[in-house]
Design a protein that fits this description.
about 325 residues; alpha+beta; 2 domains; 10 helices; about 25% strand
């Protein structure tokens, strides 16, 4: 049993999502002996070097920071080993080679944005919303060879509201995940956590029915699904709307890809990104994929069982805007 504040911790992360976890660890009194983040990269019109969100936070708090180009580079490995970490923590970082994740005596803990083993992969928040889930959560687990398959330490679930976007779920999740991570560090230090192999959960999924619950530590996590769902990386093809789907499916896709990378369609030979919409369930008079508009207040596209009304959009080459603002300045073909 150890005092968690005495643990030497190396934190690895890059985007703003990871900053919430690093901040929570610092505020809890954890001893962060090193921060590993992505190298500065050129961005913007001037292509000036931009620091990651984690790099900015680390600099503001005087934390020792390493930015390796390659995680297997001998110089980085020597520098990492010199930190003498007891534990490594990974939040929204790249895949680690075994020589890195297996280095500290207490191993490496990852925070993942789903209730594992569901939604393993690069985009768990997006896919949970796209698939119309009413609940998701966060998981801390120990890294091992296969991605997102390590033994579970703690989990916490929370609801996804019917109209929430992936961005809104992300913002809730980063706070909930940060708190779970602090509890994980404390539990590992005092020896109260027991690692749970994901295989034990997977074996229950085939028999899972509504109201079945699987216990994790002092919490019980509902397991309503009968098959594993995956969360692969989002590609451009993923984002193009198929208007032959139902209104509900298209609506969930739009909110599941909002604000980034955004669902899109092609209107008058230009890409039209859709960030917010609303549903109209009615037998459509238009062909799937065709649009209707009064040119002033509404623009809607036909689906298999109704219409999707566009509320916030961005036409290729233009800024993001509300639909009424867009309609005031847009001239449709034939007008």
């Amino acid at each position: 049993m150890k005092d968690y504040k005495s643990l030497r911790i190396v934190f690895m992360g890059t985007p703003e999502f990871a900053v919430a976890s690093l901040d929570a660890l610092i505020k809890a009194g954890c001893n962060i002996v090193g921060v590993i983040t992505a190298p500065d990269k050129p961005a913007g019109r001037g292509m000036q070097l931009q620091q990651s969100a984690v790099k900015k936070y680390a600099a503001e708090h005087g934390l020792n920071t390493l930015q390796p180009e390659k995680l297997k580079h001998p110089e980085f490995l020597i520098a990492l080993k010199s930190l003498h970490a007891d534990l490594q923590i990974v939040v929204a970082f790249r895949m680690l080679p075994e020589i890195v994740w297996n280095m500290p005596p207490m191993g490496t803990v990852n925070l993942h944005g789903s209730l594992l083993p569901q939604y393993r992969g690069a985009a768990p928040i997006n896919w949970a919303v796209i698939n119309g889930e009413t609940e998701t959560g966060v998981t801390t687990f120990k890294l091992k060879h296969e991605i997102d398959t390590g033994d579970i330490l703690l989990q916490e679930s929370f609801p996804i509201d019917e109209d929430e976007t992936a961005g809104e779920v992300h913002d809730k999740m980063k706070v909930i995940g940060a708190g779970l991570l602090v509890r994980t560090v404390k539990g590992l230090a005092d020896g109260s956590l027991q690692e749970k192999p994901q295989e034990l959960l997977i074996s229950t999924l085939g028999m899972a029915i509504d109201n079945t619950r699987v216990v994790h530590q002092d919490k019980s996590i509902p397991m309503h699904k009968t098959s594993l769902k995956h969360a692969p990386k989002i590609h451009t093809d993923t984002c193009r709307i198929n208007w032959s789907l139902t209104v509900e499916e298209v609506y969930n896709m739009i909110r599941g890809l909002s604000p980034y990378p955004a669902a899109f369609t092609i209107m008058n030979e230009k890409m039209l990104k859709i960030f917010r919409s609303k549903k109209e369930i009615v037998f459509p008079s238009s062909t799937e994929g065709d649009y209707e508009t009064d040119g002033k207040t509404f623009l809607k596209f036909a689906c298999s069982n109704g219409y999707i009304h566009l509320l916030e959009i961005q036409l290729e080459g233009k800024k993001k805007m509300e639909i009424t603002e867009f309609l005031r300045g847009y001239r449709f073909n034939g007008n």
